[in-house]
Design a protein that fits this description.
Elements (H helix, E strand, L loop, with lengths): L4 E7 L3 E8 L2 E8 L5 H16 L6 E8 L1 H8 L5 E6 L5 H4 L24 E4 L2 E2 L5 E3 L3 H6 L1 H6 L4 E5 L8 H11 L6 E4 H4 L5 H31 L6 E4 L5 E3 H6 L7 H17 L3 E7 L4 E7 L2 E2 L1 E2 L2 E3 L11 E3 L3 E2 L2 E3 L5 E5 L5 E7 L18 H7 L17 H16 L3 H26 L8 E5 L3 H12 L3 E4 L6 H8 L3 E11 L5 H22 L5 E11 L6 E5 L8 H17 L8 E12 L22 E7 L4 E9 L8 E3 L2 E4 L4 E4 L3 E5 L5 E5 L5
Parallel strand pairs: 1-4, 4-11, 5-6, 5-9, 9-10, 13-23, 23-24, 30-32
Antiparallel strand pairs: 1-2, 2-3, 7-8, 11-12, 13-14, 14-15, 14-20, 16-19, 17-18, 21-22, 24-35, 25-28, 26-27, 26-28, 29-30, 31-34, 32-33, 34-35
Helix pairs in contact: 1-8, 2-8, 10-15, 11-12, 11-13, 12-13, 13-14
């Protein structure tokens, strides 16, 4: 019996990717996502990959899963019937938000509708001050008077968010206890547990979102676990979190909001692990799947992280137009630019691509399942980037004529363009959208792109990587092994980890070190318990942060905190760390201004040693392999079709070089080597694309 088989399963908007890893070998499959019964796609992929590898369900020792189900439920408003109990006078916080406008000059601006409608938001008399002291005791009779209303509304879930409960959760817990006997089956989310941080709008929004998706996610995860066990897979099932760590099923069902963006987080972990192995200190990961494209900056082997995220943006993916969440998350930019993104011509006669996606049903027009609108995949097929007979390893035969008809009807005819120019226009728009998103993301973080390596993965990324590199001035592109299923592989690289953040306001000149140390001890106990459930024998480490600012400022920055009980001598170090971080971000410091600390975070994580590999090849390069055929491929620089040799990736060996234009195909994707690049195979069979040197 082999008990070292590990499986990663990633449900995407179009495909469900399943990867099996055993003793250094990987087997991967892609199956169409079954939107109505997502667990069926996971089970189908697992069966297929087990057959492919020659293993049985009893051999599987671990399954790690990430899913878009939580995100989709929020975007599509398909969650549970949810109510909110809040402090009297704050019933409309979810609707008022911060009263800011994300688009100053749009007279018809629309804000996202709250997940909980006003008639299901119930205020109760109570009040705590900012230090957690009781100003107005909880009116328990008023809480009990709500029971008939809650029963009549046939609720599935309840969010409880009170003012300043992040300091003192007593009133929230008491409300939960008062309701339990009368509503024992009602799922309850407390803001003091889901997001114990200041700023009530973001805290209430996060708690409402957690409650909104909790019944759906709990039901799905229970069904998945039961079906896995029924199929003979009785090993632990862990979930990928948006912050890049792993958690047990119980934790995921309690805080399903932390599963939002779990798939993209797996992709960032995959790229970060690869960067560490290859000794790359500055990387930008490029993950392009069927629905979206994700870009993440990775420095020194660590993806950028944050505690703020927006989901379900309704205004052209504009920041501020979505539902705010305060959860640990890997910081990345995500846009509606995937293989299934739909193209059209707007009122100004411009080609627009996304954010709407054809998904897996009906899918792009070339799938032949009833899709009538052109997508990025249809454009790539017409431009010769995709082989109609070998798409998805030959499991799906694409309809070239259907793609051409869609291109003509919805883009070409409207702009009086040929099918080729229509397809090229779609491709250029989506590539420029991704490049612009990357530029803005880098500028917002004060970083450059042109000195980074682009790591391309996801089914569509290797098709577009060299063109994106051209637009960003990037000199080197790396297409890893298993690029088409990178997020699922990332799940298998992710550490067991859990992060807790709490607001505990402290003025620098009156810092209560004893209270801070007690808070960290409590956070450490909770986080360590979660991580040890996932990795009982793992080597655990700790990271602490303080979110600091100058007194009176509106935004804070993260500053490392020593991983021990703080003493007075540590304050000088902490102050210096803040000024260094502030200067990096803003270019200067402000003398003679007191500091304040708003929140603190603690992360417990498992460490996995990574073997550093040599990215470069050595010695005389082997002879260039013979191509298996040729393909007509549209060259963006030449603006015409050229003949490009086609190579099978699994036939390439260490050090072999292929000069573009060329196409390197594999089961789940294909790498387009443009005329400006040379592809080379490194020590671990990654494809490294270097820009050709030109005489200046």
């Amino acid at each position: 019996m082999n008990r070292k088989v590990r499986i990663g399963a990633d449900i995407g908007g179009t495909f469900t990717d399943v990867v099996l890893e055993v003793e250094g070998q990987q087997y991967a499959v892609k199956v169409l996502t079954q939107q109505d019964v997502p667990e069926a796609g996971v089970l189908a992929g697992i069966r297929e990959v087990l057959n492919l590898s020659g293993h049985t369900p009893n051999d599987v020792s671990l399954v790690i899963h990430g899913t878009t189900l939580a995100t989709n439920a929020l975007i599509e408003r398909k969650g549970a019937r949810t109510a909110l109990i809040t402090t009297q006078g704050f019933r409309d916080t979810l609707e008022m938000g911060t009263e800011s406008r994300f688009e100053q000059y749009d007279l018809f601006l629309k804000k996202p509708e709250p997940l909980v409608p006003r008639h299901l938001r119930f205020p109760v008399p109570e009040r705590l001050d900012a230090r957690g002291e009781v100003l107005l005791p909880l009116d328990e009779q008023a809480v009990e008077a709500l029971i008939p209303d809650l029963q009549r509304e046939e609720l599935e879930s309840l969010a409880i968010g009170l003012l300043h409960s992040f300091v003192n959760p007593r009133h929230e817990r008491r409300i939960r206890d008062l309701l339990h006997d009368h509503l024992p089956d009602l799922r309850v989310s407390l803001s003091s547990e889901v997001s114990p941080e200041m700023r009530e709008y973001e805290r209430f929004s996060t708690t409402a979102a957690n409650a909104y998706i909790q019944p759906l996610m709990a039901s799905y995860l229970q069904r998945l676990e039961q079906r896995l066990q029924s199929s003979g897979i009785t090993c632990p099932l862990l979930m990928m979190l948006s912050g890049g760590g792993l958690a047990t099923l119980d934790t995921a069902m309690r805080f399903p909001i932390r599963l939002v963006e779990s798939g993209p987080a797996g992709g960032a972990i995959f790229a970060a692990d690869l960067a560490r192995r290859c000794g790359l200190d500055r990387v930008v990961s490029f993950d392009m799947g069927g629905t979206t494209a994700k870009l993440c900056l990775i420095d020194d082997g660590q993806p950028q992280s944050g505690r703020h995220f927006e989901v379900a943006r309704i205004y052209r993916f504009k920041k501020g137009s979505g539902l705010p969440l305060r959860i640990p998350v890997i910081d990345m930019v995500e846009i509606g630019a995937g293989g299934g993104s739909i193209a059209n011509v707007d009122d100004l006669k411009r080609i627009a691509v996304g954010p709407e996606s054809a998904g897996s049903a009906p899918g792009p027009a070339c799938y032949g399942n009833g899709g009538a609108h052109p997508t990025v995949t249809d454009a790539d097929l017409h431009l010769g980037r995709i082989d109609a007979q070998q798409f998805s390893g030959g499991r799906i035969t694409l309809d070239v004529e259907a793609a051409n008809v869609a291109l003509a009807e919805h883009v070409g005819n409207a702009l009086e363009l040929s099918d080729t120019l229509a397809a090229f226009g779609i491709s250029e728009v989506v590539d420029e959208n991704m490049a612009n998103a990357a530029r803005v993301h880098a500028i917002e973080n004060g970083k450059r792109l042109d000195d980074r390596t682009l790591i391309a993965f996801g089914g569509a990324a290797p098709l577009h990587a060299t063109r994106l590199a051209d637009k960003l001035g990037i000199e080197r592109v790396l297409v890893p092994v298993s690029a088409g299923v990178g997020s699922a592989v990332g799940f298998l690289r992710a550490p067991a980890a859990y992060e807790i953040a709490r607001s505990f306001y402290q003025r620098w000149n009156a810092l209560d070190l004893e209270a801070v140390n007690q808070m960290f001890a409590e956070m450490q106990s909770v986080a360590r318990e979660v991580v040890q459930q996932c990795a009982p024998d793992g080597q655990l480490h700790e990271e602490r942060l303080a979110y600091m600012r100058y007194l009176g400022q509106g935004h804070e920055i993260a500053v490392p905190v020593p991983e021990k009980s703080l003493a007075s001598e540590d304050l000088t170090v902490l102050h210096n760390e803040f000024e260094n971080a502030y200067k990096v971000q803003y270019g200067r410091t402000i003398p003679n201004v007191e500091l304040e600390i708003l929140s603190w975070s603690l992360r417990i994580y498992e460490t996995k040693p990574a073997e550093v590999e040599n990215l470069e090849t050595t010695g005389t390069p082997p002879e260039t392999p013979a191509p298996e055929g040729a393909r007509q491929w549209f060259d963006p620089e030449a603006e015409q079709f050229v003949t490009a040799p086609v190579f099978q990736r699994d036939s390439l060996i260490l050090g072999q070089r292929i000069s573009g234009p060329a196409v390197i195909v594999e089961t789940d994707t294909a790498t387009i080597v443009s005329a400006a690049f040379v592809a080379e195979v490194d020590q671990k069979s990654n494809l490294v694309l270097f820009r050709k040197q030109t005489d200046s």
